[in-house]
Structure formats: C-alpha cells, structure tokens
Amino acid sequence: MPRLFAFIALCSALAPSVGAQTTAPPIVNGGFPLVSPSAPRILFESNRTGKTQLWLISADGTGERQLTSKDGFTGGQWAADGKSIFYTVMLGDTSRLYEIWPDSAGERLIGAFPGRGPQMSPARTRVVYDVGPWTASHLVISDGHGQRTRQITADSVNVWRGEWSPNGRELAYTVSTKKGISVWVMNEDGSRPRQVTHLTPEEGRAQMPAWHPDSHQLAFQANAISPKGKSTLWLVDLRTTGAREIAAHKATYLDETPSWFSDGRRLAFQSNRSGRMEIWSMNSDGTELFQVTGRR
C-alpha cells in the first residue's frame, strides 16, 4: 500500500478508509513534502498520473518533474548531503530501498527490509523501519543493509515512522496509546524514550514529527477530533518541551506533514486549503504563505 494512502489515521484527507475502497482515492497533486538539506528543492508524492510516485520541484514552484515510476512505491527521503534520494518499493511485507541521483540517471538497490518505511541514518550506517500490523506496529533498527536487526520500541505501544535527527543521535516518532496520539523522542539506540508533545484533546492529536536542522526542535501536525477535517502545524522545543501553533485556524482544512528548509526559518507542508491537496511553504511564524504545486 503506497505511503500516501497508508497513513490513514495520520492524514485522513489522503484516503477514505483502510478497508476495501468503493470509490477512487482523491487526486493528491502534492503531498508529503521533503525539503533538500542542501538546496531549495522539494521532494513530494502525487497520484495525479494514476499511481503514487515521487516528484521533485524547486521551492519557487518551477522545474517540476517526476522521479520514480516503479509499482509499489511507498516513500522517499533525502540523503544527508542532499545529493541523492532514497526511495522505497514495497512487495508484500518487504521494503526494497533504492538510491537515486536526481541530477543524473544513476540508481542502485541498497537492500531489503522486512517492514515499512525504512529510513537511512545521516551517516548511512543504520536503518529504522516499522514492523507489525498498523494497529500493533513497533520500530526495528538494523545496519545499512538490513542485517543485525533489533527492536527498539516496546510491544505495549503502537508506533509509526521513526525519523532520524540531523545529527543522527535521536529518533522522533508517533505513538498511539489508550491515552491518545503523541510525538515521542528517544536516543539512537532506543534508550530514554520520552513523550515531547502534551496537547489537549481540543488542540489535536500530535503526529508526523519533522526535525529542525539544529536537532533541538520539531515541527509536527495536530489533527483535531472536532471539527473533523481540521489539522494545524505546531513547533516544540525539546529543551523546554514548550509547544506553539503555527498559522492557527478554525476552518475545516488540513495543514500537515511539515518539512524544514535548511535555514531553519521556513517550512514546507501539504494542505488542502485550496480545495485540493498541494504543497505549500511558509515562515515558521506563519507569515509569507506560498503555494508551491498546482499554481497553474
């Protein structure tokens, strides 16, 4: 199942249900942005051609082009130097991780991982990925080729999507318990897991963390329970655990899946505020809102 439609509990706008679909999924012109760590370029996902694939665009909305075409695509990731891109193709319960160079025709297979959403560490020495059903998922860490695996989250919590800090020392992830959905952080080896978001039910369910370049802050989305179809972006400083909302609104549209620009002052995110899911950007104080995809 493509990542664009797999995170149903996290990004409700992207798919109608987890079960059998009776209608075609909505057209997502741009979703899940990932800003390059070295240049103002944005990776994103779109199903506009009939199946979800990875695309690339400049931050000013120019130079848009499709990068991948394989069936089973489930997600992408920039390499730490911004020169290459990792992307995943899932066959059954196994994810095959590839590396491509967007400015050339180069591509190689890195390895196979028995789970979802493998994420390469900045030093390329380790990979973290999800294992288990969506309702009982945990994180596993391995070396860069899928060997020497070890579970690093407890079976007592349901966990999604480990994200490496830019300095490679910590992982951020989303946790679901009977008390709700929140963002947690732990050390690279799985030690010292701790909850870093503490929103009220009215503020929303915190999820989809994105590391600031300084490795001390996280952006994340908070999906409202009521009204349904509302999501806003937030920031939390891990040194104080103080959180603040960005571009707060009460309307039923979604601002989701943040990603930082390398200067640490601007964010890219997906939003259906225009009536269709597109990539947008704004300053971290909510100013200078700019639509990146679908401007024509």
Outline the structure in words.
- This protein has one helix spanning 3-6; strands at residues 31-35, 41-46, 53-58, 65-66, 73-78, 85-91, 94-100, 107-113, 116-120, 126-131, 138-143, 150-151, 158-164, 170-177, 180-187, 194-195, 205-211, 217-223, 231-237, 242-246, 255-260, 266-271, 278-283, 290-291.
- With 296 residues, the protein is mainly β.
- A 4-stranded antiparallel β-sheet has the order 1-2-3-4, with no helix packed on it. Strands 5-6-7-8 form a 4-stranded antiparallel β-sheet, with no helix packed on it. A 4-stranded antiparallel β-sheet has the order 9-10-11-12, with no helix packed on it.
- Strand 6 and strand 7 form a beta hairpin.
- The longest helix is centred in the N-terminal third of the chain and has 4 residues, at 3-6.
List the helices and strands and how they pair.
Elements: H1 3-6, E1 31-35, E2 41-46, E3 53-58, E4 65-66, E5 73-78, E6 85-91, E7 94-100, E8 107-113, E9 116-120, E10 126-131, E11 138-143, E12 150-151, E13 158-164, E14 170-177, E15 180-187, E16 194-195, E17 205-211, E18 217-223, E19 231-237, E20 242-246, E21 255-260, E22 266-271, E23 278-283, E24 290-291
Antiparallel strand pairs: 1-2, 2-3, 3-4, 5-6, 6-7, 7-8, 9-10, 10-11, 11-12, 13-14, 14-15, 15-16, 17-18, 18-19, 19-20, 21-22, 22-23, 23-24
* Alpha-beta classification: mainly beta
**Beta-sheet strand percentage?**
over 45%
Distance between the termini: 30 Å
Q: Give the integer mean of the pLDDT values.
A: 91
Main sheet overview: 4 strands, antiparallel
The helicity comes to under 10%
Q: Write out the strand line-up for the largest beta sheet, numbering strands in chain order.
A: 1-2-3-4
**Radius of gyration over C-alpha positions, nearest whole angstrom:** 17 Å
